[in-house]
Amino acid sequence: MVFATYEARVNITWNGQNGDLPDTVEFDTADREVRRWVTEAVRTGGVPGIGPDGRADFADFVVDRFPANENRPYNLIQVRPKTPFGGC
Amino acid sequence: MKEAGVVIDHQGAPLFWHFPPSRTTAGLPDSHVLWDILWTARESIAGFAHSHPGTGLPRPSQEDLTTFAAIEAALGRRIEWWIVSYDRVASLTWVGPGRHDYTACPVPHEPAWTSVLRLASWQGEERDGLRDVRGTSQHHVEWAER
């Protein structure tokens, strides 16, 4: 698969499974749009490798962006859980 | 005091010390490195511990609870969460039914890693038996931002 410089693969982790959205998205797509598409895709079973889950909720997930590099010749958007911890 | 964390495996041993440079008294920052560790070692991990300022039985913040739930949703299973104060340890697990319904229980017999976590959190502060460990705990620091 050949990616345009403005495109990105979207990788998702949910319910112990990991997969990519079948279609690429624009690398600068807003976080809320990425979350919305990912939520819809996981709920309807549209992500290969991730079973459909009607209760999927990515509100507390982070949209990380990694530009293409030598080892990965395409932009990557990773949707993963947030990991901050706050005192008191 | 600066908060610190550690990933614990099923044998109760530290798997990854989490001392990010931008940690503060107020908390640990979001870290994709920590998530990469949790995901890569998902079959081996029992839980994650982090420190809180102050004394007494620690209570989770709202940030803690939403992070617990998000990580468990991604892992696809529940894990144990410990919070370590200056003198007490609490163990938290999800009880439901709500997404953020976790209960905290005191841990009377503290695991060995709690002392290292306290040293990493309070290092430089000489208080009640906690000694300065600058320079001696560096071998525990395995954190590197990408």
Q: How does this structure look, described?
A:
The complex is a heterodimer of chains A (88) and B (146). Chain A has one helix at residues 31-43; strands at residues 7-14, 17-20, 25-26, 61-66, 75-81, 85-86. With 88 residues, chain A is of the alpha+beta class. In chain A, strands 1, 2, 3, 4 and 5 form a 5-stranded mixed β-sheet that branches. The termini of chain A are far apart. The mean pLDDT of chain A is 95. Chain B is of the alpha+beta class. Chain B has one domain. The relative contact order of chain B is 0.20. Mean pLDDT of chain B is 88; it is low at 126-146. Chain A binds chain B through residues 13-18, 57, 60-62, 64, 78, 80-88, and chain B through 3, 5, 25-32, 34-35, 38-39, 42, 50, 52-54, 59, 61-64, 66-67, 69-71, 73-77. Strand 6 of chain A pairs antiparallel with strand 3 (27-28) of chain B.
* Tally of discrete structural domains of chain A: 1
Mind summarizing the main beta sheet of chain A?
A: 5 strands, mixed
Parts with pLDDT < 50 across at least 5 consecutive residues of chain B: 126-146
Main sheet of chain B, how many strands, which sense, barrel?
6 strands, mixed
Q: Give the rounded overall mean pLDDT of chain B.
A: 88
Count of folded domains of chain B? 1
Q: Spell the H/E element sequence of chain B.
A: EEEHEHEEEH
**Helical run tally of chain B:** 3
Give the C-alpha Rg of chain B.
Answer: 14 Å
Helix content of chain A: 10-25%
Strand order of the largest sheet of chain B: 2-1-4-5-6-7
Number of E strands of chain A: 6
Which two protein chains have the largest interface (Cβ within 8 Å of the partner's Cβ), and how many residues from each? A-B, 21 and 34 residues
Q: Specify Rg of chain A, calculated over alpha carbons.
A: 13 Å
Cα end-to-end separation of chain A:
48 Å
